[in-house]
User: Which sequence fits this backbone?
């Protein structure tokens, strides 16, 4: 039988650079604390979750928060924030336990979009609630009839939760943009 057999000829790979004098190998950037899959990222997720749950519990402990739309919005926003932060904390714990790097562009993109949405909602809800608490306490002077201290505390917890979401969003966005 006369069958042709394929033969393999080695081919030299083209250079990776476009003729520049810099022939050093590319070095992968180290993980910065606060990015997904790092202990700093897990700590940020933990603080996001704790402060969002604290804002939720304080706001729900009042009986008349449902009468104000901004306070209902705050409750909805911190529920979403706490669920998002808890789910990403679980992903971070898994990544730390199995020593897996979460630098995939799709994963970082999902984290960035989710952090951006939840941080915007939390910030808007905290600002709206702060406006109502200032109206009730300073302008109307009706703190004796309302739960001003609880409303102010819940609003402060929502702002602190937003402060801990912001570094996560910025680091994820920076990681995504630097690709």
Assistant:
């Amino acid at each position: 039988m006369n069958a042709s057999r394929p033969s393999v000829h080695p081919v030299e790979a083209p250079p990776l650079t476009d003729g520049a004098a810099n022939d050093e190998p590319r070095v992968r950037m180290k993980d910065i604390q606060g990015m997904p899959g790092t202990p700093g990222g897990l700590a940020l997720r933990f603080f996001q979750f704790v402060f969002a749950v604290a804002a939720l519990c304080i706001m729900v402990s009042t009986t008349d928060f449902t009468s104000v739309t901004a306070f209902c919005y705050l409750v909805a926003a911190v529920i979403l924030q706490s669920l998002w932060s808890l789910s990403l904390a679980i992903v971070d714990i898994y990544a730390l336990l199995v020593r897996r790097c979460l630098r995939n562009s799709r994963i970082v993109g999902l984290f960035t979009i989710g952090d951006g949405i939840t941080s915007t909602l939390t910030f808007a809800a905290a600002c709206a609630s702060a406006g109502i608490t200032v109206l009730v306490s300073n302008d109307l002077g009706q703190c004796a009839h309302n739960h001003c201290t609880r409303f102010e505390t819940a609003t402060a917890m929502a702002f602190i939760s937003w402060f801990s979401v912001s570094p996560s969003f910025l680091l994820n966005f920076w990681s995504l943009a630097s690709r």
The chain has one domain: 39-174. The first helix runs from residue 39 to 60. The helical segments are 39-60, 69-97, 105-139, 148-177.
